[in-house]
Design goal:
This protein has about 200 residues and is of the alpha/beta class. It has a single domain, classed as Rossmann fold (3-Layer(aba) Sandwich), CATH 3.40.50.170. It is built from 7 helices and 7 strands. The chain has a 7-stranded mixed sheet with strand order 3-2-1-4-5-6-7, sandwiched between helices. The two termini are about 30 Å apart. Bound molecules: 5-O-phosphono-beta-D-ribofuranosylamine. 5-O-phosphono-beta-D-ribofuranosylamine (GRF) binds next to helix 1, strand 5 and helix 6. This is Phosphoribosylglycinamide formyltransferase. Its EC number is 2.1.2.2. Catalyzes the transfer of a formyl group from 10-formyltetrahydrofolate to 5-phospho-ribosyl-glycinamide (GAR), producing 5-phospho-ribosyl-N-formylglycinamide (FGAR) and tetrahydrofolate. Keywords: Purine biosynthesis, Transferase. Pathway: Purine metabolism; IMP biosynthesis via de novo pathway; N(2)-formyl-N(1)-(5-phospho-D-ribosyl)glycinamide from N(1)-(5-phospho-D-ribosyl)glycinamide (10-formyl THF route): step 1/1.
Length: about 200
């Protein structure tokens, strides 16, 4: 499957997706990395790794206009699935409609807990003993679509939001490639294929 990754910054999850895609049994390829910030560090990495990039500052553009620009790039690259990886912009309902069921996101909490920002600080404030990360399907509501997979991470004595974020990030890098691979493959499992054959036969 052809995957486009949207980033706004460091791009470590994009790198995890990209390197996993180089394993021979990985069912997806990263064919485009796009950003709303031309300075995003992840773009440099993608370029060095030979992945085509697109960057355009969103400033001064209407959300729907900017998303149309991204949509155009994704289509030009024949992208089939979109993976958000630290993409710090809300997507317009128009964009989400066009890509319905084909956008996934990684979020640094055990959803449905702590949607939005500052997840680790909020978990620590709440006295949580475990935190984690989730990959979910993107719908119009922020961090709200069906959860595909999660990894739980223990809170250690003395953890701060920063130490926790660093440890959860290790889990994110394990989780995202697996969850994306499963997601793009969901239509090609023997069961799914059989169900389609039955549908045609009926
Ligand atoms: C990750 O923690 C991700 O879960 C969150 O933003 C961070 C992005 O990091 N949405 P990176 O750009 O992938 O390194």
């Amino acid at each position: 499957a052809r995957v486009g990754v949207l980033i706004s910054g460091r791009g470590s999850n994009m790198a995890a997706l990209l390197y996993a895609s180089r394993l021979p049994d990985c069912p997806y390829d990263i064919v485009l990395v796009a950003s709303n910030d031309p300075e995003a560090a992840g773009l440099t990495l993608a370029t060095a790794e030979g992945v085509p990039t697109f960057a355009h500052a969103h400033k001064g553009m209407k959300r729907v206009e900017f998303d149309a620009l991204i949509d155009e790039q994704l289509r030009a690259a024949d992208v089939e699935f979109v993976a958000l990886a630290g993409y710090m912009r809300l997507l317009s309902p128009e964009f989400i409609d066009k890509w319905a069921g084909r956008i996934v996101n990684i979020h640094p909490s055990l959803l449905p807990r702590y949607k939005g920002l500052d997840t680790h600080a909020r978990a620590l404030d709440a006295g949580d003993r475990a935190v984690g990360c989730s990959v979910h399907v993107v719908t119009a509501e922020l961090d709200d679509g069906p959860v595909l997979r999660q990894i739980e991470v223990a809170v250690l004595p003395g953890d701060t939001a920063e130490t926790l974020a660093a440890r959860v990030l290790i889990a994110e890098h394990q989780l995202y490639p697996r969850a994306l691979a499963d997601y793009v493959m969901r239509d090609s499992t023997p069961e799914a294929k059989l169900a389609r054959v039955r549908e045609i036969a009926l």
